[in-house]
Design a protein that fits this description.
With 199 residues, the protein is of the alpha/beta class. The chain is built from eight helices and six strands, in the order E-H-E-E-E-H-E-H-H-E-H-H-H-H. A six-stranded mixed β-sheet has the order 2-3-1-4-5-6, sandwiched between helices.
Length: 199
C-alpha cells in the first residue's frame, strides 16, 4: 500500500467508467485522503473510449503520462491493452476479460486479440495482474453493469489501495442510487472474493 498512488481507468462509453471513477474518488475523499481526479477524454459517443484518472496523496494535477500509472483499472479488455503504455514499471493491472467490440470488428475489418494474449502480455509488464469476467460477476450480482463494482472490489481487496472493501461499501450506500445499492454491494463482495484467484 502506497501513500501516493496514480490510477488510470479506461473503458468504453456506456459502461459506467466515469461512475466508477466518481464512486472511488468520493470514497477516498471520505477517508480523509488527498485526491484529484479527471477525465482525459471520452464519452463523446456511446462505445467510444473513456479514460479517467485518480491521483491519491498530494498530486497537484490529475494528469497521468505514459509510464506513470501505478495501477490500471480496465473495464474492457481491449482498452486495457491500449492503456498499457500508461503503466509505470512494477505497476499493477486489474481488468475485465470481456470485450465490447469496436466498429471495425463489428464490420469485419478487424479482429480482436485472444484474451489470453492480452493477459500474457500484461503479466510481462506488471508485478500484479488480475483479469476477471466482469459481465459474469455482474450477472451473478443481479446486473451486468455492476461488474465494474466487482473490479473495484478486487482492487480494494488487493491491499494496493489505502482503503478497504468496507470503505467502498460505505461509498456505494452513500453515492449510488438506492435502487442499485444492493446489487452493487453483492458485486463488490464477488470481486473481493475473486482476488484470490489472480494475485
Amino acid at each position: 500500500m502506497s501513500a501516493r498512488l496514480r490510477i488510470y481507468l479506461t473503458g468504453v462509453g456506456g459502461q459506467g467508467t466515469l461512475t466508477a471513477t466518481t464512486l472511488l474518488s468520493r470514497t477516498l475523499l471520505d477517508q480523509g485522503l488527498d485526491v484529484v481526479s479527471g477525465e482525459i477524454h471520452g464519452m463523446a459517443q456511446r462505445g467510444g473510449v473513456v479514460e479517467s484518472t485518480i491521483l491519491v496523496g498530494g498530486w497537484r494535477s490529475p494528469s497521468i503520462q505514459h509510464g506513470e500509472a501505478d495501477v490500471i483499472l480496465g473495464f474492457e479488455a481491449l482498452e486495457t491493452l491500449r492503456g498499457l503504455p500508461y503503466l509505470a514499471p512494477g505497476g499493477a493491472v486489474f481488468s475485465s476479460t470481456d470485450f465490447v467490440p469496436p466498429p471495425g470488428v463489428n464490420m469485419g475489418r478487424e479482429s480482436l486479440p485472444p484474451i489470453r494474449d492480452i493477459e500474457e502480455h500484461t503479466a510481462q509488464l506488471t508485478r500484479k495482474s488480475c483479469f476477471l469476467p466482469l459481465q459474469e460477476l455482474g450477472r451473478q450480482a443481479g446486473s451486468v453493469q455492476s461488474g465494474n463494482t466487482a473490479l473495484l472490489g478486487a482492487f480494494c481487496a488487493s491491499g494496493l489501495l489505502p482503503v478497504g472493501v468496507d470503505a467502498l461499501a460505505k461509498g456505494i450506500r452513500s453515492y449510488l442510487p438506492p435502487k442499485i445499492v444492493d446489487v452493487n454491494l453483492r458485486a463488490l463482495e464477488l470481486g473481493a472474493s475473486a482476488i484470490g484467484q489472480c494475485i
